[in-house]
Amino acid sequence: MSPSHPLRRAYAGARHLMRRKLRQINRLSRKSVQMGLLLGGAALVALVSLGFAWLADKALEWNRAWVGHSGWLALLILPPALAALRWLTLRFAPNAAGSGIPQVIGALSLPPGPGQTSLVSLAQALWKVPLAFLGMLAGASIGREGPSVQVGAAVMLAWGDFWKRRGLRLRGFHANELIAAGAAGGLAAAFNAPLAGVIFAIEELGRGTVLRWQRLVLIGVLAAGFLVVAVAGNNPYFGVFAGAPLSQGMLMWVLVCGALNGALGGIFARLLGKGAAGAAPRKWRAWIRAHPVWTAFIMGLALALIGLCTAGSVYGTGYGSAAGLLSGNDGVPAGFGLAKLAATVASYWAGIPGGIFTPALTTGAGIGHHIWQLAGDGVDQRVLVLLSMAAFLAAATQAPLTASVVVMEMTGSQPMLFWLLVGALLASGVSRQFCPQPFYHLAAGRFRRQALVETGRAAKPAAPPVSGS
């Protein structure tokens, strides 16, 4: 049969078509496996975030119970508790101290390797959850959202490494992409705010780092957020905002809230960035650096005194106070906003694991309440509280888009988004006059240098033993 015979040509064409179809099926199969692995990692991040949220709620509930029964016990509980948590952090998880977001940003700015992994390792994340739980139980003014970001990054990176060791790689997902997807997914899951997770990844994590914003990264972030919505329901964290833009003077009040919260938020970020040693008089700095556990004890004592002056309202995240102010209630102690600011600074200076996201939102709510007290009953308190929440968070982080979208999703206040953006942009600009470098990135630099030093020590060969003469 000649090569030009019709049957031979038909057979060759069928073989070519079959090979092409098999290649398409294999390619589709590989893509399905990649998508399945990605969604599996997102589900794991969402599950861990939900578990962490449940633990945090229990800690805050038990804290309210013992504070309500005997508030003076804070003087006996908080100082040794923060000192013990600081010791445990230094001993077992030094890279778990503080928020967790600076560690993720620091890891993204490092090349893949031991230094990067040390900042978002699963071992650090496993310590972060119980230490933050105990901090909230004791009464520290901390939140779980920053820790959820570091934990999410660690879980996603460990998930990718797990499958990589078994020969199944997440194609297009390198270490940086896994870290970013897990971190932003952790934020989206923690706040029940999928869109805020995407904005956070682009605005905050992508600032000054090299990330390939592939479609799969954003799918991973959204998947973690939507999985939490599917399990917990589409319920805004602070409830649905029932107010509306003011009919008169709306722009003026936006500017007032933006400017005042920008200044206070800038001071807040500067204090956090300096730390206890940097903010103390020069003659005390060496002692503070040499005695971190005693410093945490002193911070616990200061926090307990602030709590006694405010009936314990500054402990924990302050969620109940912020939610009450957003609904129009006036049940917070005098000076609550400034007291919450001071309590959060003292808790952060103690060097224990814990985030500043929700405490910053609560501080902003308190400052909005102070502005409303000066403005009088002619202005809707709920509007000033909402604007101040976004403005203070934007000033503290210098991430106005993230702050606006987070507050919008957490309060169900979509009609207010334009005004939230205006106030947040103004607050972020004012904040730079007090704290030129964004706080998270300032802190990230310290973790990055620490990781490089530790990696250098590990890579340095040991000196040969000296033989006796």
The low-pLDDT segments are 462-469
The beta-strand count equals 0
Number of separate structural domains: 2
CATH topology of the largest domain: Clc chloride channel
Provide mean pLDDT, rounded.
84
What is the CATH architecture term of the largest domain? Answer: Orthogonal Bundle
Please write the CATH class name of the largest domain: Mainly Alpha
Strand % is under 5%
Fraction of residues in H or I helices: over 70%
Rg of Cα set: 25 Å
Tally of helical runs: 19
The CATH superfamily title of the largest domain: Clc chloride channel
Largest sheet: none
The termini sit apart by: 91 Å
Spell the H/E element sequence: HHHHHHHHHHHHHHHHHHH
Describe this structure in words.
The structure is a single chain. This protein has 469 residues and is mostly helical. The protein has 2 domains: 35-232, Clc chloride channel, CATH 1.10.3080; 250-437, Orthogonal Bundle (Clc chloride channel), CATH 1.10.3080.10. Helix content is 74%, strand content 0%. The protein is built from 19 helices and no strands.
